Every structure is written in C-alpha cells, then in structure tokens.
C-alpha cells in the first residue's frame, strides 16, 4: 500500500496538533545526515501525516475548510507515485517515470510541506514527534578527510590540532550551531588559539579567519561580548551572524551555510581549515521520557534542582533544563546546592538552598591569555576576583591550564568543591 494519510483533528478542528522536534543529538556526538526540514510553525489546525493519495487529497479538502496557512503535510519523500500504474509498469506497458511526480508539485498551493518523518504520536496531548532534523549533511564521514576537526568529540579533537598545523593558505572557518551547546565559549576559543598559532608560525597573513555563528550575538553576557568584539576587531576576524552550517563537502573542502534570516538560502564557503561545533541536545533515553521536558531535558526546579514532578528525582549538569550555560563550573556550583537539597529532602524537609545559575567560561584568547567570564541566570557577571575579569590576563590562563585540572580531579570529583562562592565572598569581604 502507498503511504496513508492520517488526518488529525479533522471534524473538531480545535485544539489542533503541535509539532515537536526533539530528535537532537547527544552532547558532543555526531550523527548521520537526514534531509528533513524544519517546519515554519510548531502548531497547525490540521496536520496530515503522510503525503500519499489520502494525505494529499485530504490536505486539499482541509485547505478549503480552514485556509492554506493552517494545514501542513508531513512527508519525507521527494517523489509522489501514482501507484495504480505499477500494474502496467510491472507488465512492461508503461515506464516507471510516468507514475512519478515531485511531491512539491502535488502539494496544494499554500499548504506547508514538512519534509520530515513522524517518529511518535501522542494523541492525548495532540502532539506528534518528528525525526531529527539537525544533523549536518556530510558528517561524521567528512572527518576522515584532513582539514577538519572538532574539539567537541574525543574522536575529532586531535584532528583540530592536525588541521591547525597543516594550514597553508585560505579560509579558516569556525562554526556555532543552531542548538544549545556545551560551553558556548568553546567554539570561539579554538579560533583565538588558531589565530595566535598562525601568528607565531608566520602564517597569519595567509589565513582569512571567519566565525560563522547561528546566533545573533558573540556571547550572551554584554560585558564579555564587548571585550570579545574588541579582540575580534583587533585580530582582523570576520563574524557572520545567523549563519548555520548545514553541509560539509569534505572532498572539495566546501562548507554550506544556511542564512537563518532567509530559510532555504545557502552560501558555500571554501575552507583550508574547518572547526565544527556539532548540533547538540539531550541523549535519546531522555527524549519522551517521563522525567523530561518537551525537548528532552530533565525537568528540574531551577533553584533546588529537584524534579518538578517526582520529588525523589534530581538533576545536575548537561542533561537538565537549567537555563544556564552547560559547563564544569556550573556542575560544581550545582553540586553544592544539590547536596543541601537532597540532605533536606531525605529528612522530609523542604529544600532551602538556591542555585543562582552560576557558571563560568574561561575564554581562552591566546596561548597565555584568558578572560574569565563568570555569570548567573540573569546573564549578569558574578565574578570571583575583585578585578576586572573582562580583561585578558596571564594569571587567568594559568588558572585555566594548570589550577583547574587539579581542582577538578582532586576536589570536584571527590565532592569537596561546590564552586567558588565562598572564595568570592572572601574576596569581596562578604559583600557579594
Ligand atoms: C570551576 O569551579 C570549575 O569547575 C571545577 C571550572 O571547570 C574546570 C572552571 O573552569 C572554573 C573557572 C571554575 C570556577 C573557579 C574559580 C576559582 C573561579
């Protein structure tokens, strides 16, 4: 049988159907490409699942009833077949091509074609789930070619260093995806290191350095963003905003970017080195899990880290929906709060200690320089030291490169480091 169109909420048009696209990749991993495209909206009055004979027919009828903008069809195939003709194709009386038309050509005008696959149905909530559509075409297989690396995976981080050393002449492109990422500063830290390395090795004039980011800003905290923009200007780096990597043609050393302000409009850049920050998201086990929010992050109270529905479940780190930057420093601060929360809950008391969203991003801007960004839920600086931390400093570089590994292995992992709040209070004489 050909694909069957399932028409949701047909006779009673409200409440309609929500589209959810949780199929993001696990933090730090790469997946295979799918060509599924994003839908323009996440809610339709009528959503048709499948663009076969039934689905296309019903979308035409529903369009007349509720208006084109309120109808969408989910269908992954590029081609729609008139299957009754296959009797004759099989019998040699017609050619297969005569039974085929592009799916776009049979879609009623104005009805949205969501080129994706339905992975789950939740009629109780009027939701359907769509297949992952955030993978980059050409990856991970592109990593088998030289000139491309990513600091976000154990399999590709050393390829970055190789590509950096092998650089001869051309574009060096550093990307930032259209999803939340682990340590949002890291995609640009490697760019500053690369720039410094090429300066050191006399190749700087041969490199045209580009930061192609899906975001509209360089960093989420104004104080540090201003400092970074100065550095970017001074080091002659180009920043392209709202620019999302969608394909890597590693054999031709080409990267394809979509302009997020003009969906579907792409630009191809040749590269001599490409550093990819992959799209990231919750692990598969959390998607659709009872402990997760609609996207798949563990749904916890942002102050106590206790689960919103299950009081004996708690969350810490990258897998949670805490609205702060996902870093080891955040984990440190969260661990101190969570210890207190769990201790009280175990005694049947209410949690009292509150996490303020503290996170830190040591922004490495050279081989001996760091801007130590530290901030809270409101993206306000929450600095440990009584000095201007938006300045590049050698001391902070040593803290990042030499002191932090010690702190991590010997204190954080052993449960003796709950973040720098006590140091901050001491440094600011109890005033912060
Ligand atoms: C921190 O606590 C931490 O976790 C161990 C990090 O991750 C490795 C950090 O990078 C930083 C900066 C902190 C914060 C600590 C201080 C002393 C500012």
How would you describe this structure to a colleague?
The protein has 432 residues and is an alpha/beta fold. It folds into three domains: 3-136 and 283-346, 3-Layer(bba) Sandwich (FAD/NAD(P)-binding domain); 141-275, 3-Layer(bba) Sandwich (FAD/NAD(P)-binding domain), CATH 3.50.50; 359-427, no CATH class. Helices cover 25% and strands 21% of the residues. Strands 11-18-12-13-14 form a five-stranded parallel beta sheet, with helices on one face. A four-stranded mixed beta sheet has the order 1-4-5-8, with helices on one face. β16 and β17 (266-270) form a beta hairpin. 38% of the residues are buried. The model is unreliable at 1-16 and 21-38 (pLDDT under 50). It binds ubiquinone-1.
Mean pLDDT: 89
Strand content: 15-25%
pLDDT < 50 runs, ≥5 residues:
1-16, 21-38
CATH architecture of the largest domain: 3-Layer(bba) Sandwich
Strand pairing plus helix content: what structural class?
A: alpha/beta
Which small-molecule species are bound to the chains here?
A: ubiquinone-1
Number of strands: 20
Number of helices: 9
Question: Looking at this structure, what is the CATH superfamily of the largest domain?
Answer: FAD/NAD(P)-binding domain
CATH class of the largest domain: Alpha Beta
CATH topology-level fold name of the largest domain? FAD/NAD(P)-binding domain
Quaternary structure: single chain
- Specify the helix fraction band: 10-25%
**SSE arrangement, N to C:** EEEEHEEHEHEEEEHEHEHEEEEEHEEHH
Radius of gyration: 25 Å
- Total count of domains: 3
* Shape estimate: globular
User: First CA to last CA: what distance?
Assistant: 68 Å
Instruction: List the strand order in the largest sheet.
Output: 11-18-12-13-14
């Amino acid at each position: 049988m050909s694909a069957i169109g399932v028409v949701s909420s047909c006779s009673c048009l409200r409440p309609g159907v929500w589209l959810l696209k949780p199929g993001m990749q696990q933090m730090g991993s790469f997946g295979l490409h799918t060509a599924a495209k994003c839908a323009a909206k996440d809610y339709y009055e009528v959503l048709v699942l499948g663009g076969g004979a039934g689905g296309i027919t019903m979308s035409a009828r529903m369009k007349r009833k509720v208006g084109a903008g309120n109808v969408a069809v989910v269908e992954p195939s590029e081609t729609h077949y008139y299957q009754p003709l296959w009797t004759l194709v099989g019998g040699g009386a017609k050619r297969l091509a005569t039974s085929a038309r592009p799916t776009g050509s049979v879609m009623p005008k104005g009805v949205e074609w969501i080129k994706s696959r339905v992975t789950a149905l939740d009629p109780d909530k009027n939701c359907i789930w769509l297949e992952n559509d955030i993978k980059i075409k050409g990856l991970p297989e592109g990593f088998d070619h030289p000139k491309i690396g990513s600091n976000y995976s154990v399999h590709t981080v050393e390829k970055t260093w190789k590509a950096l050393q092998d650089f001869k002449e051309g574009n060096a492109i550093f990307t930032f995806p259209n999803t939340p990422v682990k340590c949002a500063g890291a995609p640009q830290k490697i760019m500053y290191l690369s720039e410094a390395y090429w300066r050191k090795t006399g190749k700087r004039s041969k490199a045209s350095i580009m930061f192609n980011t899906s975001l509209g800003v360089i960093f989420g905290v104004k104080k540090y963003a201003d400092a970074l923009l100065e550095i970017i200007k001074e080091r002659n780096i180009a920043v392209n905003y709202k620019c999302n990597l969608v394909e890597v043609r590693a054999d031709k050393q080409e990267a394809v970017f979509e302009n997020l302000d003009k969906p579907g409009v792409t630009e191809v850049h040749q590269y001599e080195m490409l550093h990819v920050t992959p799209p990231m998201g919750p692990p598969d086990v959390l998607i659709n899990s009872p402990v997760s929010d609609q996207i798949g992050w563990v749904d916890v109270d942002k102050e106590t880290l206790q689960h919103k529905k299950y009081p004996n479940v708690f969350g810490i780190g990258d897998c949670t929906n805490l609205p702060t930057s996902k870093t080891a420093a955040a984990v440190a601060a969260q661990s101190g709060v969570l210890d207190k929360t769990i201790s009280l809950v175990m005694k049947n008391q209410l949690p009292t200690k509150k996490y303020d969203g503290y996170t830190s991003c040591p922004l490495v801007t050279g081989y001996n320089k760091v801007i130590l960004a530290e901030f809270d839920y409101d993206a306000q600086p929450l600095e440990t030291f009584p000095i201007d931390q938006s300045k590049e400093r050698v001391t902070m570089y040593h803290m990042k490169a030499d002191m932090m590994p010690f702190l991590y292995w010997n204190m954080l992992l052993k449960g003796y480091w709950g973040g720098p709040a006590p140091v901050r209070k001491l440094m600011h004489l109890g005033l912060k």
